[in-house]
Specification:
Structural class: alpha+beta
Shape: elongated
Number of helices: 16
Order of helices and strands: EEEHEHHHHHHHHHHEEEEHHHHH
Number of strands: 8
Strand order of the largest sheet: 1-2-3-4
Helix content: 40-55%
Length: about 400
């Protein structure tokens, strides 16, 4: 090897093989221009000699300048001229799906299993359903946006999947495989509107507001599920009662409750160690992720009410790795949840609001000795998140636990 010039996009190496000079291109350029994983070579058609070395170095510097200035077509033209080819090979054009698959392969080690099973897989389905042959074409990206608009039920879904595509295109613009990201401009025109659920309260707060249940509402919801108060069929709602009560008593995330195993429960403590996410619909699309959202694991004390609930589920006598809520499909649960709230004339909140409710009831009670940092530790969040995201007004109520 005679020399090598370094550049921000890789270095060209001047070598000799079989008595002739050739250039060895960096791997990223080889993949981009010639679809090769190994370093591509360009023969200079010059015999090795001291007299010819300056000319070879001059050509080496010329190719390096093309790479540094991202003049990739000039490299192809240079090689075609040396190879005595009349037709210049154009830069390879990648379809959006090809770019997406390679993008996911490179990035997936940074993503959680639940994220891959959710947004990433759903975006891939859309790309398969509506192929984009030329990602540099504004018209094709616009047509894909229109397809998403027709397919997605909400503006949130439309923006979510187009944002995934935009991130992919941004990645390849930075890596010089495409020249422009049209999806980024189209995203600016999408203003997701928070769709209101049904309301039985003319003074219902906006769904973005922190709006926990008060103690009477919490107790009424638990009672309705336990007694099948509004269920059309016996046992239809009561099978969800332990799940609902557990969420209210612990303030845990729904994924943490679904991932809890009998072996994670002792006489005094519950150990949250993993999360279970239903990525799409039904029990078939389940992702179990070791560790929790913000920590590896978390302990929670078994309070008297929680002990009473766990005893009805035989949680202390079962030492297996079976999940405590093995047969709960959280997506299916949303239907009876909405129905119970509607019949109780309670304005709609998502089931995740059980977490807001636990935190707010504990901190709003005047007799409570619990501090923000203690509650934050119990539920696995920060005091800032509690203050600005979870804590709402619930009135003053007497606590019976914790």
């Amino acid at each position: 090897m005679y020399s090598s010039n370094k550049g921000k996009h890789g270095k060209v190496q001047l070598n000799v093989i079989n008595g002739k000079y050739y250039l060895r291109l960096p791997k990223p350029i080889s993949r981009l221009l010639f679809d090769q994983n190994d370093c591509a070579r360009i023969s200079l058609r010059i015999n090795e000699s001291q007299a010819n070395l300056p000319k070879a170095i001059e050509l080496e510097n010329k190719i390096q300048s093309y790479i540094d200035n991202e003049q990739y077509q000039a490299i192809l033209e240079f090689k075609a001229e040396l190879d005595n080819k009349n037709k210049v090979v154009p830069l390879r054009r990648y379809s959006l799906l090809e770019l997406w698959n390679e993008y996911v392969e490179r990035q997936k080690s940074k993503w959680s299993p639940s994220y891959i099973a959710g947004d990433i897989q759903q975006t891939e389905k859309h790309l398969n359903a509506h192929p984009v042959k030329n990602p540099d074409s504004f018209d094709e990206i616009l047509a894909f946006r229109d397809y998403l608009e027709d397919t997605c039920k909400t503006h949130e879904g439309l923006k979510r999947y187009l944002k995934q595509v935009s991130s992919c295109l941004d990645f390849w613009v930075r890596n010089k495989r495409i020249t422009v990201n049209h999806a980024k401009d189209l995203l600016k025109d999408i203003n997701p509107k928070k769709q209101r659920q049904y309301s039985n309260d003319d003074n219902e707060e906006h769904l973005d507001d922190i709006n926990p249940f008060n103690k009477e509402q919490k107790d009424a919801i638990i009672y309705a599920f336990k007694t099948n108060q509004f269920s059309r069929y016996q046992g239809c709602h009561s099978k969800y009662a332990p799940y609902v009560e557990f969420l209210f008593l612990t303030g845990c995330r729904t994924s943490e409750a679904l991932g809890l195993r009998f072996s994670d429960i002792s006489e005094k403590e519950i150990f949250f160690r993993q999360g279970k996410v239903l990525s799409n619909r039904g029990l078939k699309n389940v992702t179990v992720k070791k560790g929790l959202k913000t920590q590896n694991s978390r302990k929670f004390p078994v309070t008297p009410k929680l002990r009473e609930l766990l005893e009805t589920m035989d949680a202390f006598s079962n030492n297996s790795n079976d999940e405590l809520f093995k047969n709960i499909n959280h997506n299916s649960f949303r239907t009876p949840w909405k129905y119970v709230l509607r019949e109780l004339k309670i304005s709609y909140r998502k089931p995740y609001c059980t977490r807001h409710t636990f935190i707010s009831l504990q901190l709003n009670d005047p007799d409570s000795k619990m501090k923000e940092h203690q509650i934050a530790e119990l539920v696995g969040t920060s005091t800032d998140m509690i203050r600005y995201h979870y804590l709402g007004k619930t009135g003053d109520y007497e606590l019976t636990d914790i």
